[in-house]
Design a protein that fits this description.
The complex is a heterodimer of chains A (about 675) and B (about 180). Chain A has about 675 residues and is mainly beta. Helices cover about 5% and strands about 55% of the residues of chain A. In chain A, the strands form seven sheets. Chain A has a 22-stranded antiparallel β-barrel. The chains are: A mainly beta (about 675), B alpha/beta (about 180).
Chain lengths: ~675, ~180
Amino acid sequence: MLCELVRVTQMHFRLILLAGFIAACGMPATLLAGDDVSGMNLEDLLRVEVQGASRYAQPLAEAPATATVIPAADIRRFGFRDIGEALQSARGVYTSNDRVYSFLGVRGFSRPGDYNSRILLLVDGARSNDPIYDQAMVGNEAPIDIDWVKRLEFVPGPSSASYGGNALFGIVNAVLWTGADLNGSRVSLDLGDGRGGRASLLSGGRTAGGLDWVAGISTYQRQGGDLYFAEYDTPGVSDGIAHRRDGERYLKGMLKGSWENWRGSATFSQRQKNVPTAYYGTVFDAGGNFVRDSGYHLDLARTSTLADALDQQLRIHFGHYAYDADYPFPGVTNRDVTRADWWSAEWQLIWTGWRNHRLLTGVEARSYERIEQRNFDISPRVDNLDDRHGGRTAGIFVQDEWRFAPNWLANVGLRLDSQTTAPTIASPRAALIWRPRDEVTLKLMAGSAFRAPNDYERHYGDNVLQKGNPDLRPERIQTREAALDFTPTPTLRLGIGRYQYTLRNLIDQEIDPADGLLVYRNRDKLAARGWETDIEKMFGGGWRVRGSLAWQSIDQPGGEAVNSPRRLGKLLLDGPVAPLGATLGLNLQAVSPRRSVLGSVAGHVTGNAVLRQTQHRGHGLWSLGIYNLAGTRYRDPLGTEAAPLDSLERDGRQWRLRWELEL
Amino acid sequence: MWRRRGTAMLAALLLVLSGPASSAESGDENEVKAAVIYNLLLFVAWPAQTTSASSFRLCVLDDGALTTALRHHAGRAVQGHALEILRIGATPEELDTCVAVMVEAGNPGVLPRLGILARSRALLVIGEGAGALDRGAMIALRSDGGRIAFDIDLGAMRRGGLIPSSKILRLARTLIE
């Protein structure tokens, strides 16, 4: 049966390898008790990170990575509709979309259909990638709503030294609002093209007893219009139009609270998307072709001080993920049912009692209680796959931040991970940070990261189209990077970075010549390097311009990598338009031509413009966003599961009208 | 086997969880803001007669988290006097003894009134949130990209006879004249 290729990823090369260290090492977290801010001078105070997720508090300039922070104000001003769109404003990041999921490209690596498995998505510091596909969901399928985000942190580069698997190309951390931030309610209603609408309610506050609470719910629905595919336009068979097969809806909910040093959260998300593209050889323009991703996460953490200069944090997490999809084939509908349940526990200690050092150590254990992949034809019932596994991983990590001389900082870390499906893996990292003056920061960084083969790659197979490969080895990346940050005046910042990485044993899909079945195999070495630079300038009157350029190239056997543009450019401009009592956000993205599996797609420039009222006049705030302003026609490469499609046209001009009310 | 080990680990975790508590973790943002406010007071010059009283009185109108954090700085030296944090209503009489006043984000309605009062006397009006300057604050604190930043309305300060040092002008994120 051709049926089960669900989630086949096959592509050619696109590696996302990137480098980075994330927060792992330590970006921001909340300040620790050991940090007495009252004695700090003004300059240092303004550098303190006050929120964030990682291992401990750290000013961005001292993080062993080149991080980008996207605050909620930018999300509103530029009208970012999901996490992927927001991240696309960061230097070197690009997105693609196959009308089912959104894919992130970092440093030239974005393999069609890899489900962002080489990027780690954290929500308030807790891992949200599922254990079957390793997917980091950044589009409408994401586990959270973009309205809940207080700030997004993006740290390119390998971060396994802090976070374990998946952190090959970068970490995305979504920091959600707290009750004290909200202190009231926010209602928003959106209308968009394709008969799309969205409603969201977010409330939060802090009780007299010190309980900080937040509750949010969001729902979205879009009917979608007709889509034309020349590849399916066959006279006498089909007119090539998928008639309203592009609908989508989601429901997301969130509850979180903190009291004294306890923090807890629960998030829920279910997103269903109709698939207009007839992937996996399904019937074109047929009803009932959909995918549904659902999941929930429960998280409980407690921070406390054990002794002078010794703090600890504990975290327990439970996750559930479900994937359901129907594939209409001639005469029979095929179904995927995938389920995962897992929990994890983590304990870390931070010791600042050794002068000029900050030591962090911790252990993490994850247990996969249920990993289930089933595929069957509904009627007549034929079972093609019924695979059940469990598993566990354990990791131990240590890192030290050492101010060995004035203006110098060294950050070294090591993590060991062992798991049921792979040998023990060591992920080291080292960074040297020099700040000769307040205005200049130079960072030299090296590190490695890994991803163990997931259950989908190891066990999904029907032996008709695809087979599993339990012998897969983990893929590994090694990255070296240098970055310079220069702030010559308070209103001007310049950044430049150079990186190179080597990816070994990349897990990629290919056809086994012996039996013609698709299978995941470890590939040969692949190397890449690139430059990235960005500039940020603030003008009088509140206007701000940010621009970035990235050049990247991947060396791999077999020619150019798929979906890997050699150049990326971005220009973001925002500021107040006084006569209208509004702000204007302009966002231009330029992407050079990319190779696709069978051919290529042209380069493109697209622009978004968002006008947003800033003055409440008693009836809320209105904003209007026009996306792909010029109606540019451009395409993204697709994976081989999309045949006969090789690339897909992205949306033309879109609009969104939004109304927000703060109570 | 694993399950059993997992149970033991959970039990161990719960034991540790029930250990001594302390470092409150929310409110950190307010602690940084409070420390920034204290530092700002060190770098503003008031007309000589304003600060001749025995204490340096920073008045607050609220009793929220930022005020709580600010109280930790009471007694520290500002311009040769001990810092006093006093909660008042917003009547002109009560404000007479204040050299600075801080308004939390949850109470923005009072800012325009304070801004008008401050035109005729040396009263530093500190607000919270991005829109506070527009509503009458001279210095507005806000969190931006995970850090604390402040904006200054230099014209409003000068009209009240207050002179910010070049240091805080340089560190201000936005400066309005």
